Automatic annotation (TrEMBL):
InterPro entries: SAICAR_synt/ADE2_N, SAICAR_synt_PurC, SAICAR_synth, SAICAR_synthetase, SAICAR_synthetase_CS. This is Phosphoribosylaminoimidazole-succinocarboxamide synthase. Pathway: Purine metabolism; IMP biosynthesis via de novo pathway; 5-amino-1-(5-phospho-D-ribosyl)imidazole-4-carboxamide from 5-amino-1-(5-phospho-D-ribosyl)imidazole-4-carboxylate: step 1/2. Belongs to the SAICAR synthetase family. It comes from Serpentinicella alkaliphila. Keywords: ATP-binding, Ligase, Nucleotide-binding, Purine biosynthesis. The gene is purC.
Length: 237
């Protein structure tokens, strides 16, 4: 098999680059410092964001793997790169909402921070060009984005992931408000992919409700890098 080699770039998104390798069914993901919000309308850079998101995602993928949730993470390669399984991403973004915030507050006319009596799962069509529009089970079926069995697996995995992460973050004095997940197919199995970081999660301090996530960038709240560092510090403590 030989030494791992990074080959041609397969994809570049808003936060990551994905590279082919010389090893079958393995890719390299490189995390960038670039930051975007509002479907790319706001752009900037968060110093060392790539390093923090790479390490935090690896840490949480290990936690989830220990809980029996298969994901694409294999190992950390360096500060900015991880080795992952070469999943075929299912073009659906899964939003898990435990507390009202962001777009849900606007759509339903509710105050941010309102507790939900049950966890809400929403879906979006993964398309930068269209601004990731919201879809439901019927759209997913009609557009053949996933089979019924695959969608059922995504839902059940999402609930299990939420149970594990919500409990884990709470132990670190963090409220898991809402977050985005992506799944992919690996050897015909649905597994968790993408990342789990302050870019993809809303995380509030348990005691003060201070926002410690990408909303600090979206809303020009300042101390963005410091908040990302604080989340990682708590998780590693």
């Amino acid at each position: 098999m030989g030494e791992l080699q990074r080959l041609e770039k397969l994809y570049e998104g808003k936060a990551k680059r994905v590279y082919k390798t010389n090893i079958e069914k393995q890719f390299i993901v490189e995390y960038k410092d670039d930051a975007t919000a509002f479907n790319g309308e706001k752009k900037g850079t968060i110093s060392n964001k790539g390093l923090i998101n790479n390490e935090m995602s690896a840490h949480l993928f290990k936690i989830l793997a220990d809980a029996g949730i298969e994901n694409h993470f294999i190992e950390l390669l360096n500060e900015r790169e991880m080795l992952v399984k070469s999943v075929e991403i299912i073009p659906i973004e899964v939003m898990i909402r435990n507390v009202v915030a962001g777009s849900l507050a606007k759509r339903l006319g509710l105050d941010e921070g309102t507790e939900l009596s049950k966890t809400v799962i929403e879906f979006a069509y993964k398309s930068d060009e269209l601004g990731d529009p919201m879809i439901n089970d019927y759209h997913i079926d009609a557009l053949n984005l996933a089979t019924k069995e695959q969608l059922d697996t995504i839902k059940s995995l999402s609930i299990k992931i939420n149970e594990v992460l919500e409990k884990y973050f709470l132990e670190k004095d963090l409220r898991l408000i809402d977050y985005k997940l992506e799944f992919g197919l690996f050897e015909n199995r649905v597994i968790l992919a993408d990342e789990i970081s302050p870019d993809t999660c809303r995380l509030w301090d348990v005691n003060t409700n201070e926002k410690l996530d990408k909303d600090r960038f979206r809303r020009d709240l300042g101390n963005v890098e410091e908040s990302y560092i604080e989340v990682l510090r708590r998780l590693k403590a």
